[in-house]
DNA sequence: AAAATAACTAAACATTCGTTTAGTTATGGT
DNA sequence: ACCATAACTAAACGAATGTTTAGTTATTTT
C-alpha cells in the first residue's frame, strides 16, 4: 500500500455535479472543475477516467440525492395532494439554492438530445419514466378515474413539471405558485 | 465598385439559424456553419463580424420568421380558442421539421442563462414577454374574467408553453395533444 | 484594356479544450 | 529504515476552437 487520497470522492463528485448543473456539460471545463472540486486534473482523471466518466458519476450523485425526495413522495398517501406538494418542493428547492438553474434532468436532456450518447439519454429518460410511474400511482388512488384518464393526466403532469423546470428561474415565485394551483385545478 | 457577393445574406443566416437551433450556440462550430451555410469562414466574418454577431443575426431571423405566426395569432378573434390553436401550431411545426428540437427561445435561454450576455438575454425575455402580452389580450376577450385571473392564467400559459417546448421531442404527439387539451380544460 | 476594389480560397494564427506524461512527495508494509 | 507504491504537482500534449492574414479571382469603373 501507499499514500492515501487527500480528498473524499463522494464530496468532490457532489461539487462537480453542482457545477455541471449550473453550466451544463459542454460549458463546464476541466479547469473550472479543478478549481471547484479543489483537486488536481490528474486526480480527477485517476478517479473518474475522463470528463464523461465524471459526468456520469455526477448524475449518479444527483440520483441518490433525489432518491430521498422521491421516497418521501412515494410513501405519502394523500394522492393528488402529494403530487402538488412535490411540485412545490421541487420549486422551493431550486429557489433555495438559487445558483442552480431549473432541473438538471431537463437541462441535460436538452444538451445531449442531438448526440448519440445513449448512456446519458437512458439515464435521463429513466428519471422521467420513474416520475411518470409515481404520478400514475398517485392518480390511481382516485377510483373514479379510468385507466386512460390516469395515463393522460400523468403525461400532463410530466409535461407540466417540464414547464416548471424550464422556467423556474426566469419566472417569479408567485407566478410559479399560481401555475401550480392552476395545474391542479382540474385533476 | 467590384465583385458581387455570391451568396444572399438572408438565406445563409436562415441556414445558420437552423443549425444553431439544432445544436445550440456552443456546440455549433464555425466549421459546421461553414458547411451548412455553404460559404467560407472569411465570408461569414466579413458579413457578420464574428460567431456571436452571426448568432444575433440568427435570432433576428427567427424573430421575423415567427412574426408572421404571431401576427396571425394576434389578428384571430376567437379568444382562448386561438391560444389553443397557437399551441397546436407550435407543436406541429416542431414535429413537421423533426430535426429542430423544442423551442429556440427556451433552448437559448437555458444555454445563456449563466452568462453575462445581456443582449441575448434581453432578446429572449422579450420573446417571452410578447407572448405573455398576446395571451393577456386573448384572455381579456372574456369579460367575466377579472384582471388578476387574466394575469394568472397568462403566466400559466407561458409556463405551459415552456413545458411543451422542453418536451416536444421526448414525448409522443398524442401525449402532447392530451397535454394541450388538459391545459385548456379549466381556462 | 487597365486599374481599382471587393469577394473569394485556403492556410496559419493564438487560444482553449480534454488528456497524458514526467517527476516529486508522502505513506504503507516488511 | 527502507523500498514499493499510490497520490500529488505542474508542465506538455495534440486536437479543436474562433479568428485573421496573405494571396487569388472576379467584377465594376474609367
Automatic annotation (TrEMBL), chains A, B:
Key words, A-Z: DNA-binding, Transcription, Transcription regulation
DNA-binding region, residues: 29-48
Keyword Transcription: yes
SUPFAM superfamilies found in the cross-reference section: Homeodomain-like
Domain HTH tetR-type: 6-66
Claim: Transmembrane is one of the keywords in the record: no
GO molecular function, one term: DNA binding
Domain of life per record: Bacteria
Name recorded for this polypeptide: Transcriptional regulator
Source species: Algibacter lectus
Amino acid at each position: 500500500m501507499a499514500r492515501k487520497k487527500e480528498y473524499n470522492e463522494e464530496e468532490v463528485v457532489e461539487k462537480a455535479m453542482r457545477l455541471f448543473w449550473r453550466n451544463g456539460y459542454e460549458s463546464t471545463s476541466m479547469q473550472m472543475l479543478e478549481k471547484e472540486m479543489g483537486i488536481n486534473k490528474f486526480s480527477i482523471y485517476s478517479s473518474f477516467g475522463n470528463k464523461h466518466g465524471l459526468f456520469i458519476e455526477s448524475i449518479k450523485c444527483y440520483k441518490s440525492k433525489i432518491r430521498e425526495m422521491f421516497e418521501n413522495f412515494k410513501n405519502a398517501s394523500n394522492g393528488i395532494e402529494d403530487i402538488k406538494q412535490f411540485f412545490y418542493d421541487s420549486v422551493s428547492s431550486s429557489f433555495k439554492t438559487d445558483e442552480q438553474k431549473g432541473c438538471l434532468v431537463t437541462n441535460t436532456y436538452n444538451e445531449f438530445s442531438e448526440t448519440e450518447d445513449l448512456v446519458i439519454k437512458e439515464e435521463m429518460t429513466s428519471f422521467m419514466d420513474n416520475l411518470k410511474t409515481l404520478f400514475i400511482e398517485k392518480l390511481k388512488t382516485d377510483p373514479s378515474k379510468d385507466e386512460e384518464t390516469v395515463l393522460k393526466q400523468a403525461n400532463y403532469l410530466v409535461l407540466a413539471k417540464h414547464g416548471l423546470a424550464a422556467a423556474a428561474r426566469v419566472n417569479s415565485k408567485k407566478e410559479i405558485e399560481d401555475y401550480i394551483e392552476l395545474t391542479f385545478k382540474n385533476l
